[in-house]
Amino acid sequence: MAGAVGAVAAAACGPSRAQGALADDGGRRLSIAATPRRVFPAGGPASVFVYCLAPDRLLGWTRALRADEAAFLLTEVAALPELGRLTGRGSTAALEAVLAMRAELIVDVGSTAATYVSLADQVQRQTGVPYLLLDGAFDRTESTIRRLGQVLGVTARAERLARGTRAILDAAAELRAGLRDGERPRVFFARGPTGLATAADGGLNAEVLAQVGALNVARVEAPNLALISLEQVTRWQPDWILASDAAFFAQVHRHPVWSKLPAVRARRVLLIPRVPFGWFDAPPALNRLIGIEWLSAVLHPQRTRYRLDERLSDTFEWLYHRRPSIGQMRALLAATR
After folding, report:
1. 172 in a domain, yes or no?
2. Whole-prediction pTM value?
């Protein structure tokens, strides 16, 4: 790849080197002969991690990117083909695609439960391509960045990303520590076109809420995602509603029941931006750092000391190798309301 991608690669890459055997976060032993140059992401989180660390190594995306997403990424990399997913519910990538793309490494970032360890073993056995399974938990983000950076031979870039991640998480922790009783906003995360899917407190898809000192009002008996009723939302009486779907957001103020909720009447409904990747949970990867800075400023405006449009432009450039204009960032922020 040429142009900006080449410049990023030159700054980040070291020489190819033999690596030998290593253990991944699933406790699996695998052998990587040299620094991989062709990396196949098993799912959405892996594609974000690989892009942020070494965009020139990425072979493609789990789905083709839309024009509005591509506008915030390196042009050459954004145009890479759709590969499908090897992991997750309803995988869409054929193992033949791994071989056709001449992949030298498969990377998966997410759960390291037995199901995913078994999948990694199966794919590696059938393709002959090393499959690196890394823990995608929020509290393991820095470790995951450094481990993947070492495997890809981009340790300097990985260290910069890890330290920046720590700075954002430390700032969020400082904000939470300063909140008094009653200052933690009660938030409902409304997923889907009806708003009647949500994420459980402590679930993977709601981790950003805890980071920004918000209370997840959803009380559901599920490890992560769950369907709920409008009656439950009415009982929970959230202070804020975060909407993942533009269709739901567009009609919530006209809905005969939703419109009566205090959060809706007070115009405290936010549409979560999804470019270039979701700012809240889709996918659960480094893109969520953007969501932490965004929601920290929106939910606690008196406790944040930065101009949000400028801060997010800086963070976009740091993560995605391309700086958006202040006008672009203001347009994204305006669309959340």
Report:
1. no
2. 0.92
